[in-house]
Predict the 3D structure of the following.
Amino acid sequence: MKLRKSFAGISAMLITAGALPFSQAAAFAADSAKEKTFTKGTIPAYVYSLDNKVDIECRFYEDMPNVPYIKISDYYKNYSGDALEIKGEKGKYTVTTPVGATATIDVNSDTLESAEYEAFFRPTAELSEDSGLVELFVNSTDVKTEGDPKPMTIDFAAYDIDIYGDDNEIWMPAPTICNIFTGDILDGVYCQDSIAFVNMVDPSFTRNSVLTMQKAQEYANNMIENGRPADLAKYNYFELCRTFDSEYGYPGRIPLNDIIAEKGLDKTLAETNTDTKLVRSHLLSTDYKEYLLGLIELEVYLWDGGHTTIATTGFGLLPNDLTDPVVEAYFSHGGYQLASNFHEDNDMNNASAMGVIAARTALMGEETEPVLYRYIEEGGTAYFSFDSFMSCDLAGWTAYYKGEGERPADIVSAFYDCVVKADKNPAIKNFVVDISTNGGGLIPVEQYMMAIMADQKTSVNENVRLGVKTTTFYTADKNLDGKFDDADKNLKFDLNFGVLTSRCSFSSANILPSDARDSQILILGEKSGGGSCSVMNYMTADGMPITISSAKIRFANHKGENIDAGTEPDFNYVINSTDEKTGATVKDFSTAFDPYEVGRAFAKFYNQAVYRLGDPNNDTKIDSKDATFVLSAYAALATGDGITDVEKMASDVNGDSKVDSRDASDILAYYSYRSTGGKDGIVTFLESEE
């Protein structure tokens, strides 16, 4: 089998997951290694479809009666479609995957060690270059790494999690197995007593297919009425800590970043201050509402802009009459020591979003319903605006490149079509990619856009867990004709590109301006909002979906520097003020959506001639010649002839969207005013230009 060098770009961005009840049998036995009795049972598993249900053998050990243990071989068979080779004696096993990746599992010390950590836990299909799982408009062609991967050890005992072995079989808690055996596309999710194997490319069966609001509410009602079982509450907490410690990518912005990196999450909560100790007690509580409060508190402590979420998704599945009192309890606490600036971040992001929407609406018009993208050509500049890099039809593209479907009508096609349209219009010289309200999404979409804008062919990231920096080289089907060929290499557009950002530009919308800076592309607006890690989706043992900034991929600029702090614009056109009544920050983005001002920024950045207001003949002086030019332009427009959009904007000095004799009169008045020594007032719309 030809192994894939990298599956760069498609980080595990699955949605949520779900479950159905397990069954227990009355028979008891004893584990040969640790002599603990257990109850036998089965749990249902849905193998990449609700129609493909199998029952997996499980055990409930005497000290963990509410946590099912399953064999890693059973899990792997359904997850990857292959068999593991397991050999060992006296509680120490060597486990080998079909591609030869190995791990040593010691059930006496409760540890797992591997020098091939990533390859060991991913399914076989994802490691094959010809798997056909997903076919996209960008292809990885080569990978160069810097540094040797560190061997990894998972010390389950440090989290009070037992693993068991007998007859060349290894038993682990089902939630733990699901959290460590995860791929970029294929994944297994344990939730509320069942397992769902999902494929992120297949929209017909996702986590949401089984984790429904009804199931979540039924589970919550049961926990409220009967309380959380003590064994489950304890295991749930420590498995959450283990997952976080193993998988967190440390983007760097949370106050507890360095403490957690040194001590781990549990000791950080247990030792830092009275507030963190309170959070820990809530997460361990058998009272379900206290536990929900702990989830909110932990999310605020771990808030890194939106990649790490502990309560957000799960709370969306629960009724307001349950979550509202929990939220009120959180606010009544009055602040938490060393927590993140969660609320300030959100307030400032909201101010940016409101400012962007107001300015964008003034240029592009009102929206009555959600749109895939927005596009307008005005004054020599085209604006292409969209809000998510997730608006990409993965299944559609896979079918298209297999010759089984048409080109998808998604954000990638829309971007290409709009670039082609702008390029065909001789009046359009500048193309703005507006991601100022874009929360991120799939990296391949960002890579494709960079290939169009700058012929960029590399992406840089770091595996924080393994200590390896990776440069991925890729090629793009730029013309989207289903082929990677010379036509793509030769495709060029006679456009100057720019990127418009704000604090709301997060994740992939933070990577795009970083790559744009590396490729000397103009950046406008406000500093981007950060978010340098890919996102991994997990489930707590009791069925709460969480996301974590992943250690697997932390993106960097081409110097290898972490980009979580965001990218400063070349032209910051945002004016901040304070609302006198509310004290809230108000942001004015109108200049960033003014085609004339943006056209000037393009001209300055790309060293082109700049037309100045009142200087349509572009001789760097505002004088009677310009007034004559305006009158000629007025006559030309009246007889049906034309002038360029930029000349029109330079001529329309009074800003009434018309070029006429009044503009010429104003220019003459200004010329006379300045010629006689005037300094202030009078023609203010031109005074600012001097």
Summary: The chain has a mean pLDDT of 88. The longest strand covers residues 545-556. DSSP finds 22 helices and 25 strands in the chain.
